[in-house]
Specification:
Blueprint: H1 6-9, H2 19-33, E1 52-54, E2 57-60, E3 63-64, E4 67-71, H3 75-79, H4 86-97, E5 102-106, E6 117-119, E7 122-123, H5 125-141, E8 144-148, H6 158-168, H7 184-198, E9 215-219, H8 233-249, E10 254-256, H9 269-272, H10 286-290, E11 298-302, H11 304-307, H12 313-335, E12 339-344, H13 355-374, E13 379-384, H14 407-424, H15 434-438
Parallel strand pairs: 4-5, 4-13, 5-8, 8-9, 9-10, 11-12, 12-13
Antiparallel strand pairs: 1-2, 2-3, 6-7
Helix pairs in contact: 4-5, 7-8, 12-13, 13-14
Length: 442
């Protein structure tokens, strides 16, 4: 998501983060989670295995793996500065205490404040070390990362930044931001970026990213759309070229596209499942884009209040279940691949919003994943958008929550952890936390 640039600007120079505010965060987290900050150095020797795929299921060490995950897109950005860096550890350790297993976060910031890629092929080592830190911190608590490689939206640079770079260097074919997908020069820019990321040697762990099982997998692009070619051919060609390129460099990690899940103009589901008529004209198609052999699992987002102009809350919630069931069915019957719902959220800007509505929304998403897990189905997991820690109001949007602030929400999330674990067991090292997490929740 991250529609507005205000989130990345607000903490730019640290002026919005007073010392008193930081102290209150530390105190709150300590009181809430006890030993949350007890790990000072990297002492844990957690052994992680790569996540694999067996047909339409994720597997780890030959065990089925269903994911209770979340989004914290802000990790790398906040790891750059000393005064915001503790937020990463606080969020990861709190997530581990909830039994969450995978976090989706950005591995890009193109030409913006705290840019990782300053210009094509030019990187800020200070920011790269921040990404190193994020991966090392996740490894310390045994949480894996789904890393996204570029944004379709303008936040943190996105495809528009690549187009501006090509245009300013006199090699761009068009000023349209969709030229990101077809301009040969921009494709070279992106391939060089991807290769640099995949072959980066972490300055903390000593592992190249492509060799680190802390990374669950790679996401090509967040929420791709190519509205200048509603046939979908342009985006499909880009997906096939980039996914093949990545697999030649890194065949150990899983790969997904980053789709919202819309059905294209030739799909019979465009009229029966898509949220509204416009969704078929975005230059994407869930089945076609996810079918390529280099794509290991399909991705879907869920934003009913963003996609419908006139629909009741009950109508939106019914859509959520139908939307999820349709894509899981596709994973099982058409794609033969897992399907992950990598973003889901309900806006607090809705008229008459009550947090209980969000609880109900979360329950519906979790119930569909649970039912899939019981049948060993293709619904491989879900990722709430988005989780933060205390004191991050300037970085929030209308979907974000501090999950432990509302007891009912916290209970819904941890209950989902325990229900999944009861079916298929826990994945190391989360297994060690299950007795504490699931006491009375089985």
């Amino acid at each position: 998501m991250v529609k507005s640039s205000k989130y990345k600007m607000a903490g730019g120079n640290g002026l919005f983060f007073p010392i008193l505010g930081f102290a209150s965060i530390v105190a709150f987290m300590y009181l809430s989670f006890g030993d949350l900050f007890s790990v000072v150095n990297y002492k844990n020797e957690i052994s992680l295995s790569f996540v694999g795929r067996n047909g339409s299921n994720f597997v780890v060490d030959d065990k089925l793996f269903y994911i209770n995950g979340w989004n914290s897109y802000w990790f790398m950005d906040h790891a750059v500065h000393d005064h915001t860096r503790p937020r990463i550890r606080a969020m990861l350790q709190a997530a581990a205490k909830m039994g969450l297993t995978v976090c989706r976060t950005w591995a890009f910031n193109d030409g913006d404040y705290n840019a990782l890629q300053i210009s094509p092929g030019q990187f800020d080592e200070r920011v790269f070390k921040a990404l190193d830190f994020v991966i090392a911190e996740a490894r310390e608590v045994g949480i894996r990362l789904l890393l996204s490689l570029v944004n379709n939206l303008d936040a943190y640079g996105g495809k528009t930044r690549y187009v501006k770079w090509a245009w300013s260097e006199g090699v761009g074919l068009s000023s349209s931001n969709d030229s990101f997908f077809y301009d040969p020069s921009i494709r070279i820019y992106f391939k060089n970026y991807v290769k640099t990321i995949l072959t980066r040697k972490n300055t903390i762990t000593g592992l190249q990213y492509r060799d680190d099982p802390t990374i669950f997998g790679w996401e090509l692009i967040n929420e791709p759309r190519c509205i200048t070619d509603p046939s979908g051919d342009t985006l499909q060609d880009w997906i096939e070229e980039m996914s093949t390129f990545i697999k030649k460099i890194d065949n150990k990690h899983l790969l997904t596209v980053g789709l919202e899940g819309f059905y294209g103009p030739k799909s019979p589901k465009r009229k029966t499942v898509n949220p509204e008529f416009w969704a078929a004209d975005m230059g994407v198609d869930f089945i076609r884009n996810s079918a390529h052999s280099a794509i290991d699992f399909a991705s879907v987002h869920i934003y009913p209040d963003q996609w419908f102009k006139n629909k009741s809350l009950d109508g939106k919630l019914k859509f959520v279940a139908d939307w999820m069931h349709s894509h899981i069915e596709d994973g099982e019957r058409e794609l033969k691949k897992p399907v992950m719902f990598t973003e889901f959220g309900l806006s607090d800007l809705n008229k008459g919003f009550d947090p209980a509505q969000r609880d109900e929304f979360y329950k519906i998403v979790f119930d569909v994943i649970y039912e899939s897990a019981k049948k060993k189905g293709a619904g491989g997991g879900s990722f709430a958008w988005q989780f933060l820690v205390e004191g991050m109001e300037e970085f929030n949007d209308d979907f974000g929550i501090v999950p432990w602030k509302r007891a009912s929400t916290y209970s819904i999330i941890t209950r989902h952890t325990c229900r999944l674990a009861k079916i298929h067991g826990g994945v190391t090292p989360i297994t060690g936390n299950l007795k504490n997490i699931c006491n009375g929740r089985w």
